[in-house]
């Protein structure tokens, strides 16, 4: 018997989270990672009930450019309309529901369904059907009946395109909240627009999506899981006597460095760490330019700090090893799919672009020297989530060091996180993720019950 | 060794390379590569086509210089990489070997490949593709100046490394 997506022995989703900051406790019931009913409820209460990341505007730069993706379970595509605006529609023909857009990306004047040939323009209007006169009398034929279904909300912030299947959601800017200050920093270094570098990667991982979502704001694992990365890169650099931007800054993985982490509210997270070697990053070449444009505090944020953020529930942005955009979705309770791109300032000099890309390939991708170890750990955690007799996953680290509101660095940026902590290896940001998770799950179920 | 190299000799060389990988003799495998060797597995664009300009686009693996390959070997042998510990067992099936050109210093060759990998944690993984080699004639032996690996699959289940492609 399934009741409200919760196993009968649980009274509600609140039972999955043991949130007692006064006792120094924050724990998550590991069944949250393997209960198919939880995923069903996440689809309807999280992924299909609020803003999710769709693509970057650079993916759909020109009129007619389209990008096919998903919101939760539901296939959608984003398209640039002739007037320059964006549209986003369910990727199902208005007639018999064949997949309308079958390529991931492309450019077109309109869409022709591969099944019965119905035609649609980039505004989602049905513009032609095959042999209408012999199939319907005029009284029962209205082409508009077949128009594509648009998503309820579509908006973008600094090039990041988000959509929502639910209409009653806050403005995107309010949803992003404190995260906007950091997104601004991510975008600031580009003298022109940011572009998506040619090539991407897509990989599937045998774990619940939340295990990987937690891996993002988790810097605590890096010196353990990625020590072998640091050793391998240091071995290579010694062997090759590398210098300048060809070097990789592994200091973050091997020593104690100044850092901070943030619960940005709405389930969004961030952390930064001081860069031991800021000159190893392509952006360092713009130092003089940035110093003219911004305050010293802001320049320190851009040049001196490696930055990482997650936007609940499906976007990860970071500028640690390299500039990086990642989105993901659950495929089933124990399987997820990730898409990843390198993002860079358009017009970047080739030698800097090459250095950025090599750092990216070193670390990320299912063929890199670090991501495979993240995947292996995540998959092992998925297997161990069935250890029901040891049911709690602890995320209490740093709870006693939590600062309500911004720390000094956040204030410098005009960023208003819900909470800050003085180390990137604290778990307070993850607590924000699960508090948001619970809020959305409970709100959604209440709404469903009316 | 300016004389032409027979297709059989090229195939023999490729089989030996595959055998060194499968028997995890990574040190001997590295010895097959020139110091300035290129090891390149392009990624794909959103259209599924392989990227073509390795320096300025994203690759699965793009290593220029043998030290980068040595670092990869160092990592998987370090014992610290969970993804590589224990190392998956592999069998490289190298077929359809053809010699595309044979110059005074270098031979260009092509082969198809299927690599079956097994480890208990992830089960079986099969990756298919083709190899494009530039083999340099150096002191009476062939060495790899360039190995390009074009993978058929681009939606990757799990992860892969230099020895599973």
Q: What is this structure, in a nutshell?
A:
The complex is a heterodimer of chains A (450) and B (165). Helix content of chain A is 28%, strand content 26%.
Overview of this structure, please?
The complex is a heterodimer of chains A (450) and B (165). Chain A folds into 2 domains: 52-156, Rieske [2Fe-2S] iron-sulphur domain (Rieske Iron-sulfur Protein, 3-layer Sandwich); 177-449, Naphthalene 1,2-dioxygenase Alpha Subunit, Chain A, domain 1. Chain A has 450 residues and is an alpha+beta fold. In chain A, strands 13, 14, 15, 16, 17, 18, 19, 20, 22 and 23 form a 10-stranded antiparallel β-sheet that branches. In chain A, 28% of the residues lie in helices and 26% in strands. Chain A starts with 16 loop residues before the first strand and ends with a helix. Chain B has 165 residues and is of the alpha+beta class. In chain B, 21% of the residues lie in helices and 45% in strands. Chains A and B meet through strand 14, helix 6, strand 20, helix 10 and helix 11 of A and strand 2, helix 3 and strand 7 of B.
